[in-house]
Specification:
It is globular and about 65 Å long. The protein is an alpha/beta fold. The longest helix is centred in the last third of the chain and has 20 residues, at about 285-305. The chain has helices spanning about 70-75, 80-95, 110-115, 165-175, 205-215, 230-235, 250-260, 270-280, 285-305; strands at about 5-10, 20-25, 30-35, 45-55, 60-65, 100-105, 125-130, 180-185, 220-225, 240-245, 265.
């Protein structure tokens, strides 16, 4: 039996004008027709969305579904099994917000993706990175000045704080073995890092080239957490497919991104989110992250306005 969704307004995603009072006919998991109310089959099951605007599912190109805002103390007190449950809740909330596909930039393990794919839990279609590669002291190294490490050891996330060509080669292969759809690495510091700054460069060109080679050899793409000018440059020249954040873009690198077709995923909400969280729950944002978010927010927006999509 067909299912018909009666739409107050339908945006079909093709660029055409919105259609008023449209009916969308679905058979199984396929949309078979879109048209006026008169096209509703007599025996169809009808969902009345006449009060709403209906549009295709959205795609979020940079999420961390495994991350739930917490203070450092709360993170240390959270069992790994509870983190997985929170991961699944975040996936459901993302789907309910209208995002039917999401590109997870680190944290979500293969088992969560499998659970969604098998229909055990609701969530968007996922492309996962599993866990990002970081150099010692770089963005992604969760060792705190006290010696406590916020990274929770578990069998589904390989250890990826690595240095040197052979170490990054092994880590890249391990991440792919763990189910990564794309490989994530940090070619610069970041706002939430305890030991580095957004303007600091991460990984050498030789290390980045090795990661890119191994990922491409396995048929995977590569995404780079890249905020610093040199970190962005190194990532682009190494052939990485997407620059995440891109806070300090320079004109010649923007030109090179256009030439190569390198994507910018600007994540403009990232520093804004940090500032909002600090207002709502001060304990959930470390002072060093609040400082850095304030320092980068204007440069971040300015970079986006000058970026390769312009």
């Amino acid at each position: 039996m067909a299912t018909v969704i009666r739409c107050g307004t339908l945006i079909d995603g093709t660029g055409h004008d919105p259609i008023r009072n449209a009916a969308m006919v679905v058979e199984g998991d396929t949309i078979v027709s879109v048209g006026p109310e008169a096209s509703i089959p007599r025996d169809a099951s009808v969902i009345d969305a006449a009060h709403a605007t209906v549009l295709p599912g959205l795609i979020d190109c940079h999420v961390h579904l495994a991350t739930t805002p917490k203070s450092i103390q709360q993170r240390l007190l959270t069992p790994y099994s509870l983190m997985i449950a929170e991961n699944l809740v975040n996936a459901r909330l993302t789907l309910e917000a209208g995002f039917t596909t999401a590109r997870d930039a680190g944290g979500t393990p293969r088992g969560v993706k499998m659970a969604i794919d098998q229909g055990l839990f609701p969530g968007p279609r996922l492309r996962i990175s599993v866990v990002g590669l970081a150099q010692t002291g770089g963005h992604g190294d969760a060792l705190m000045p006290s010696g406590a490490n916020l990274r929770v050891p578990d069998p589904e996330h390989p250890w990826t704080v690595v240095d040197g060509v052979e170490a990054v080669r092994t880590a890249t292969r391990e991440v792919i073995r763990a189910g990564a759809d794309q490989v994530k690495l940090a070619t610069s510091g970041g706002v939430m890092s305890p030991s580095t700054e957004p303007g600091a460069t991460g990984f050498s060109p030789e290390e980045i080239a090795t990661i890119v080679y191994e990922a491409h050899a396995a048929g995977k793409t590569v995404m780079a957490h890249a905020q610093a000018p040199q970190g962005i440059r190194n990532a682009v020249l190494a052939g990485i497919e997407s620059i995440e954040h891109g806070i300090y873009l320079e004109d010649d690198v923007i030109d090179e991104m256009r030439r190569r077709g390198t994507y910018l995923v600007p994540t403009l909400v990232a520093p804004v989110w940090v500032l909002r969280r600090a207002e709502q729950d001060p304990a959930s944002i470390p002072p060093y992250a609040l400082r850095k978010a304030n320092e980068v927010k204007e440069a971040h927006f300015a970079s986006f306005m000058r970026g390769p999509g312009k």
